[in-house]
Amino acid sequence: MALEMKVPSPGESISEVEIAEWLVQDGDYVEKDQNIAEIDSDKATLELPAEASGIITLKAEEGDVVQVGEVVCLIDTDADKPEASSESSKGGEQASSSPSEKKEQESSKEESEQKTTPSGEASGETTYASGSPSPAAKKILDEKEISTDDVKGTGRDGRITKDDAVKAESKPAMGTPGKGKRGESRTKLSMLRRKVAERLVSAKNETAMLTTFNEVDMQPIFDIRKQYKEEFKEKHGVSLGFMSFFTLAVVRALDEYPAVNSMVDGKEMITYDYKDISVAVSGPKGLMVPVIRNAENLSFRGVEQEVKNLATRARDGKITVDEMTGGTFTISNGGVFGSMLSTPIINPPQSGILGMHNIVERPVAIDGEVKIRPIMYVALSYDHRIIDGKESVGFLVEVKKALENPEELLMDGDVKKALEL
Hints:
Helix content is 33%, strand content 24%. By secondary structure, it is of the alpha+beta class. Strands 9, 12, 15, 16, 17, 18 and 19 form a seven-stranded mixed sheet that branches. It has a four-stranded antiparallel sheet with strand order 1-8-6-3, with no helix packed on it. The protein is extended.
């Protein structure tokens, strides 16, 4: 019986997918639940498992865009699993025949060499050393100051002709390609990458995007992490990173400036009373933005566990569409790649994104004295259609205050209780 395998729905609002890669070949025997293909939607890359065991017949090519519910392959469930012995016997026959084939090849090679061996002396013809120039060619090469070693002869026995010398160039002219490799490759963008590109261009063209900047003294967070990170990891099984501090600082700032937690819908402005924080993660197929749901209800431990789980699933290609759908505000950490400063692009239809950057020791003025502090530059890109300059600057200042005074503003004065130690 031939089982028809159809494209499952990856999620709501997705009507088509692209066959990114077949993991099996036409005619292969597949086991039930074996991953047979990777399919790209405009939000994620998903694996397609076999629904039964049998011989597979592919009905779509890699790169084909197929509709959800369309048949992409057939599985003959009545077919028997092939035995491995047949392949080994076939390999043995090939191995046994190889000595005779090798002997014939050697004999053919000897005959070929005998036919092509120069017989200049017997025929009375003049022979030349390979790479030697004719008198006319030598004169031209001397005038150009080109060594004969740099010219490949096309004449008999590799002799450098006058035409070879005329075509030879001493030094590349301005704009003339050198001797290095000048190859190029062309790779089709995945559906996910194309969708990301489309959304980024849309965000630039359809929003009134501006960016405001500030700097954060990370010393207080450094001190807390230095004192409690080992105890925190031992008890909760996750590291005490920077994302929990930034996420909870953003949640607090969104309470102060709810317009940043809003988005435009036609002629209306939608403001959310919950905080679903999207976290930009670099995955194997490109940028992914999984969502931390109801971050306002999470503790430091809860945020760190959620970030670790989502980041791991994204990098392993196991993230689902539902885990990346929605989000009311985004945090992007370019600092892990060494970025000092950037202007992050809004993740539509959201209206704001916070960009984190690397931490560098810088001289700063504190109480009239110059001191060295670990400083991070932060950036807030926002949609000026619904967020005014006062709100955007005020929001970023509130984030800065919380990060520079986390014990009071994020932990209610009790660090151990906030960290659940």
